[in-house]
Design brief:
Oligomer: single chain
Strand order of the largest sheet: 1-2-3-5-7-10
Helix content: 40-55%
Order of helices and strands: EEHEEHHEEHEEHHEHEHH
Distance between the termini: 32 Å
C-alpha cells in the first residue's frame, strides 16, 4: 500500500489505498518512516497519493486502537525534515488529519485545485503531533494555524496558496509538475544542493 519508485536519485513515494481515502494503518506509517529514514541518498523525494485524495490521515479503526497518538507520526515528519535532498509533497487531493505532518515537513507543497486541507484533531479529542503546529505556524502564522487546528476549518487549495501553506496550484498531473521542479536539483552536485537547503533552514 506504500509504493516506492527510485530513478537516479529521484524517489517517488505513493500512498496507494484509494478505496480508503489513502488512510494510514500502523504498518503503512511504519513503512513510510523506514523509507524516509533510508532516503539520505535521495536527491529528491516526492510524496503523493493514488486516486483523488492525498491521505485522510489515520485509518479510523487504527486511530481508535491508538494510532492517532502514535510516535510514528513524529518519527516520520522528523525524518522527512532532516533529509538533505529536496522534498516535495505532490498533493493529488485532500490532505487531512495526521497526514498533514509529512506534508508540512516537506520543502515544497504542490496541490491540485480541488484539494482541501484540514486537521480535525481537536474535535476528535487528540492533540496534534508536537512539531505540526510549529511547522504550520512558521508557514502561515499562529492565527491561521489556530483557524485550522482550533476552528476546524477546511481550507481550499486556493486559500492554502494565499496563506502560504501550499506553494503552487497545479492543473493536471501534480507528480509531473513536482518532477519538473526536481530537474535542477537532480542535475546539480549533491553537496551544492544540500548546501543550499542548509542555508535555507
Amino acid at each position: 500500500m506504500i509504493e516506492l519508485e527510485q530513478d537516479n536519485g529521484l524517489w517517488v513515494v505513493t500512498i496507494n489505498r484509494p478505496d480508503k481515502a489513502n488512510s494510514l494503518t500502523g504498518d503503512m506509517l511504519e513503512r513510510l518512516c523506514e523509507i524516509a529514514e533510508s532516503a539520505q541518498a535521495a536527491r529528491v523525494l516526492i510524496l503523493t497519493g493514488a486516486g483523488k485524495v492525498f491521505s485522510a490521515g489515520a485509518d479510523l479503526d487504527a486511530a481508535k486502537a491508538g494510532l492517532a497518538t502514535s510516535p510514528l507520526w513524529e518519527r516520520l515528519s522528523g525524518a522527512i525534515a532532516a533529509l538533505p535532498g529536496l522534498t516535495i509533497a505532490a498533493l493529488n487531493g485532500t490532505l487531512a488529519g495526521g497526514a498533514n505532518g509529512m506534508a508540512l515537513a516537506c520543502d515544497i507543497r504542490l496541490a491540485v485545485p480541488g484539494a482541501k486541507v484540514f486537521y480535525p484533531v481537536m474535535k476528535l479529542g487528540y492533540l496534534p503531533q508536537p512539531s505540526d503546529p510549529k511547522r504550520m505556524a512558521a508557514l502561515i502564522g499562529p492565527a491561521r494555524t489556530k483557524l485550522i487546528l482550533m476552528g476546524g476549518q477546511k481550507i481550499t487549495a486556493e486559500e492554502a496558496v494565499d496563506f502560504g501553506l501550499v506553494d503552487r496550484l497545479v492543473e493536471g498531473d501534480v507528480v509531473a509538475a513536482a518532477k519538473e521542479i526536481a530537474v535542477d536539483t537532480l542535475a546539480a552536485r549533491p553537496e551544492i544542493a544540500a548546501g543550499i537547503k542548509d542555508m535555507c533552514r
